[in-house]
Amino acid sequence: MSGAGTGSGEGSANGLNMLLWFLVLIFLGFWVASFCAGWYILISPCTVCVEGFTPLSDTLLKGVKLPHFCATHMMQGSNLGELGNACK
């Protein structure tokens, strides 16, 4: 039966992408988030008084959200190239 499948033919690549995202989540995402969380908690209230801390606070918040970003892309099986979009 030719053409009986419903997938796009990227099953093994999708599984590989999921594995790569899982490794990024474990070895990078959690570590970056834990580092950024403490600093974000300390700097976030200061942004009310000192406007110059706002870009730093926003960057730290992106770091805190990195595990969510990795887990979302892991479940979607998207390419690892999407990791560059987390830094924008």
From TrEMBL:
Highest taxon of source: Eukaryota
Keywords from the UniProt entry: Membrane, Transmembrane, Transmembrane helix
Transmembrane spans: 20-42
Record-given protein name: Uncharacterized protein
The organism of origin for this protein: Notodromas monacha
